[in-house]
Amino acid sequence: MKRLIGLDPDRLLAASPSRLALALKPGGIVPEIRALRLKEIAERVQKEFGGDLPAALKGLSISKARAALKKFPSIADPGADRILLFAGISPVAAVPSNCPHVLARIQLGQERENYGRTYKAVQEMIAAEVPATFDARIRAYLLLKRHGQQLCKSSNPKCSVCPAATSCAWATAEKRRKAV
Fold this sequence. Notes:
Distance between the termini: 65 Å
Order of helices and strands: HHHHHHHHHH
Number of helices: 10
Strand content: under 5%
Structural class: mainly alpha
Largest sheet: none
Helix content: 55-70%
């Protein structure tokens, strides 16, 4: 029987890079680089957070927890917010990193001029409308993600089959543009 590596920093550090790369292979491209990055992260969790990142983050303010997470490779606001939400640390209004356009289109009829502004605007919309509970915010996150992946794609949105089209500012504007 295969021995699992797990998520414990000690076990990650003890695993060989080749074994980590093998475990990471189904998750995407260049598993060898991701394995080395994971070892770096595990070492940092050991040194800076005593081996227990969730416990350390729970003791910080949201802004400090977000800042601590953003020091890790490839973690920006969307990733930090997702970790805080799904790890049960804070019911932040997380927005799927590839889907902030969804709610911006529905509510505003357009995306903001840059990703950061769109992300913040959508985060504010969620905070204003969705109760600040883990269940409600996780559900909102997952619904936005699914809607963005299946219907409200960045290019070529499927407004004709969207159940939200009648109340969507983007779909209404698209309908007007096509009628002209």
